Amino acid sequence: MKFTIKDFRRFEKQIILKRISISGQKKIKNSKILIIGMGGLGCPLLTYLASSGVCNIGIVDHDRVELSNLNRQIIFNSSDIGKFKVIQAKIKIKKIYKDIKIKTFKEKVSKKNIKKILNNYDIICDGTDNFKTRYLINDECKKKKKILISAAISQFDGQLFKFNFRKKGSCFRCFMPLMPDQENNCGSEGIFSPLAGIMGSLQANEVIKTILNFKEDLDNNLLVFNSINISLRKVKINSSPSCENKCRK
Fold it and tell me: 31-236, which class in CATH?
């Protein structure tokens, strides 16, 4: 996409950063990002990516907006209740940045459609709330050598992962080889609403760093955040010899 004077004026506060400059802003504009899940994580993630100048974003979600979503899914309001999340999110974000191209996928990710959905995007952002879908996204990203940036939230705690499958390294199955018996998500355990905004913003932060090829990234690491203690902890995820995706080989 062409970089214009209007682009410069809109993003000049980023452009004057020496580690970004015009060349970095062009990378941001031309990146192709997919967000799976337009919930508490996807809403701040989409907002910050669009506000940063990403011009090609896909958003995936089959759900409609519910009243209980409004305490943390900051794009939506009462007038959106009953409407499809991806449609309403696109309408709202186009008001922030009208040059953005948003492709909506009003469907649930499955083995049948995941290849088609992921195909045209370089960085995949997982904000889903169940392990079955997380494993599916992880495995397809690994197979297609995509970059996966995943976040999860429950109660007062958040997690952020990054796996660059263009390189050798670990995957989500190395961290969690077996699917837990119970889901730990907002629906089953509750959620502290500011945590969703924090983790979605951290996810956006990692996406922009990845676009700009910053060396200080989370490759093969887990970032753990506790919103009560305001503590951050980084944990290395090593390749497991027993991983189904054969990450050690």
Answer: alpha beta
